[in-house]
């Protein structure tokens, strides 16, 4: 697993290197929280790139599977680090096993969600993986875009009438930006509501609920839920004439490279943007974490909007702290210099 992780990071770093942005020594001056000054830069900007992450979705109640309670059955996001460590330290492994045998309420034997979101997991047990993604699709049907999504979409629509552009570069797979009205969106990690055929490769939008009859009522997240064990022929299948291949969620799984066409488009957008916003992302997931610091390194104003400081905060010109749905709308509202 560790080697796979390293390989994955190496891949994403490699892909990131393909973005070919210069990287200079970071500016370590404390970033400004002066909204008036930011608004002056906003009013001048012709091409605005907005990088968004899980924090924006979390404010709509979308589960991130991180932190306390972030389980789907026995799978959890963070335990993987512990498992990586025990590969190398037999003593820790022994302690880990002891902990597992102690009577306790916490599921210490939980497994990383990263082991569920992989091509290997899908080929071993497509029914289980589809249960997980079916659950996530169904959860999304009860969620709505929040004020942060809406302000970004409204800004794009308004500025496009002035010959200015806004692009959303998102790590989120929930389509909430689209539902809010954004149209210029680059989805780095794919979408919960798209499928790819394992046979013919067709990528298709799919908002059907449930995605197939066999998944109806399946995918419950509680640890006691029984696995559906759906026969592979009853899982979502390709509707192309003569194909009938097995469909998979069109999301980037651990161990997979990001789409090269999307990365090329991201490269173009980052090279032409004259203002960059980083919204609700912890700046630790690569390659997205590299994008904004590299834009900042060529002297373009970068503004971070987040509930806390991140490892990249000191590289940026602006940092605004708080819930994105509260702090973003006033930042992106119509500037007095804009025509009505
Ligand atoms: Zn097909």
UniProtKB/TrEMBL annotation:
SUPFAM superfamilies: DHS-like NAD/FAD-binding domain (SSF52467). The active site is at 189 (proton acceptor). Zn(2+) binds at residues 197, 200, 238, 243. PROSITE patterns: SIRTUIN (PS50305). Binds 1 zinc ion per subunit. The keyword Nucleotide-binding does not apply. Its cofactor is Zn(2+). The chain crosses the membrane at residues 82-102. NAD(+) binds at residues 53-72, 171-174, 280-282, 306-308, 324. Substrate binds at residues 133, 136. It catalyses: N(6)-glutaryl-L-lysyl-[protein] + NAD(+) + H2O = 2''-O-glutaryl-ADP-D-ribose + nicotinamide + L-lysyl-[protein]; N(6)-malonyl-L-lysyl-[protein] + NAD(+) + H2O = 2''-O-malonyl-ADP-D-ribose + nicotinamide + L-lysyl-[protein]; N(6)-succinyl-L-lysyl-[protein] + NAD(+) + H2O = 2''-O-succinyl-ADP-D-ribose + nicotinamide + L-lysyl-[protein]. It is found in: Cytoplasm, Cytosol; Mitochondrion; Nucleus. The keyword Repeat does not apply. One of its GO terms (molecular function) is acyl binding. It is an enzyme of class 2 (transferase). Keywords: Cytoplasm, Membrane, Metal-binding, Mitochondrion, NAD, Nucleus, Transferase, Transit peptide, Transmembrane, Transmembrane helix, Zinc. GO terms for cellular component: cytosol; mitochondrion; nucleus. Residues 28-338 form the Deacetylase sirtuin-type domain. Its main location: cytoplasm. Its EC number is 2.3.1.-. In contrast to class I sirtuins, class III sirtuins have only weak deacetylase activity. Difference in substrate specificity is probably due to a larger hydrophobic pocket with 2 residues (Tyr-133 and Arg-136) that bind to malonylated and succinylated substrates and define the specificity. Belongs to the sirtuin family. Class III subfamily. NAD-dependent lysine demalonylase, desuccinylase and deglutarylase that specifically removes malonyl, succinyl and glutaryl groups on target proteins. Has weak NAD-dependent protein deacetylase activity; however this activity may not be physiologically relevant in vivo. This is NAD-dependent protein deacylase sirtuin-5, mitochondrial. It comes from Astyanax mexicanus. The lineage of its organism: Eukaryota, Metazoa, Chordata, Craniata, Vertebrata.
